[in-house]
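Look over this today:
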Amino acid sequence: GFSNWKKAIERFGTHEKSNLHRAAVSSLGAVKAGVNVAAACSEAKQMKEARSALIKILSSVQYLSCQGLSVQGHTDKESNLNQLLALRAEDTPDLKSWLNRTKYRWISHDIVNEMIEIVAHDVLRTLMKEIHKAGFFSIIMDETADISVREQVSICFHIVNKNLDTEEIFFGFYNTSDTTSQALYTLLKDVLLRFDFPLKCRGQCYDGAASVAGCRRGLQVLVQEDEPQAVYVHCLAHTVNLVVQDVAQNIAACRNFLTLIRELISLVKNSLKCLAWFKEFQRAGKETLRSFCPTHWTLRAASLQSVASNYSELLEFLEELQKYYEVIDCVTNSLCNRFTSSVFTHMTEIKKFCFSKLFSVLFRLHLLWKVAVIISCSYGRKVKSSYYYLNNLRCSRYSVNF
């Protein structure tokens, strides 16, 4: 017991600071509180682990979306999301224990779709701020059918940022059951209203379809009725593509040459046996044959270049293929005869050189404008780059190109 009451206050203060007294007070508090405190601590720990797992799941969904990978698979177990979470769970105990639960785990189809929608809305809100800061913008729209044969309209906004550089901001695809000018105009107004954009439009760019480019009731006329300063510009890349297509179709030599080259590429690539046989003739390091792009004519330069780099190998392959005329069809045999004839070979050499140069020039111009858009440089620099390239081509055409 305690008997030195003269120094009681001093001794009591010393006792309160001792480890024994603190442990006793802590034990007494736990006994008085009962199971409520223990339950609260356990619940707080579970909440912390669940929050950590949710962040890991959300970041995994964001990663797959940014990389353009599918989230779901043929089965839930084989889906990219579940496989990625299983890989990350090896280094994250909280996520591993969460995935081993038998209750809800926040990876159902509906919840994952909701996560993607939340991320998409957050991105759109960030892009909205950029357009609101710019004040004025131009509109770029194009309608096309997807793989499920549903009409979709892509909408982009062209702005000038505070550094006076142009930026092209993609705002998504929008379904439409009608591609008339009035339907597209209603869709455009709905998008502007949804994102709280006033019609401070200074430019509009579409392809040459009548529903958008019509001078009387096209989409560009309807927009100009509300905003007269919205100048319509026909898409330059589409214009170049139409010019190349028209020139190639109206020059007989070019049309026939491209038709034969397309047939030659199809002969090799449409048959697995022919393709495997052709690779035996192909030298190491040579690029593979590339099929013609059905719509973008400026991209056919790559196909012509692939034929030019493998031209001698193609002739050897066709000569060898002719030896087996008994097992090949008459069309293939006729094509082989035309390509391997001496007169046609010399004419093809000339056309191959000329048309490859022509399409390569157009393809370089296409790349100049495309890269200029990606790095957000000014239109003055785009025009200047195109001018310098064409000028250098003219100066060197006799010594190098022609």
Summary: Residues 240-401 form one domain. Residues 371-377, 398-402 have pLDDT under 50 and may be disordered.
